[in-house]
Amino acid sequence: MGMIFSKPITTARGILNDTRVIAYRYSDPDLLGYCNDALKELVALAPEYFHQEGVLDCEADSCQQSLPWSDASGLINILGVVDGNAVTPIDRTDLDLFKPAWQSDDAAPAVHWMKPDTDRVRFTIYPKAPPGQQIRLVYLRTPGVFGINDDTGLPMTLEPAITDYIVGRAETRSEEHTSEL
User: Fold this and answer.
1) d(C-alpha 85, C-alpha 43), whole Å
2) Contact 170/12 with Cβ under 8 angstroms?
3) Nearest-angstrom CA–CA distance, 110 and 80
4) Which pLDDT score, from 0 to 100, does residue 123 have?
5) What is the helix (H) or strand (E) element at residue 74, kind and residue range?
């Protein structure tokens, strides 16, 4: 079981001295929103927590492929063809220099892949995909919105960082905090 948000929210309430259940200064929905915002920040700071393996059905007779999952925000690595060979990264410039007509080669199991600089969910494979080809890959997934007792799948070691984020966000909007300055 992974981290659930109820623990960092409870810890943050203690730090914020917001422990009167009858009259919380910070509502549960607000603190839960801060938790979900913290995950969005975590994607940028520590994306390895959001790596997801998947199997992609390649678009037949095409070198251009794209990640089909709505939560996919970027390709990390291609591991290989399902029940087949490894697929290694290659620089497109190298392929263009040494095999200028590579895009017109016959379809065959993928051997290489290239990540474009401009689009994080589209990529190129060489050669073109034959019908029915599937590739195993790792992509960066955007975290969903979690409830207070939902299992995030993240390690509990992240609780202090999530707690600190909650406290920081709550303190920036606190009227008492700004009047003390």
Assistant:
1) 31
2) yes
3) 8
4) 95
5) strand 72-81
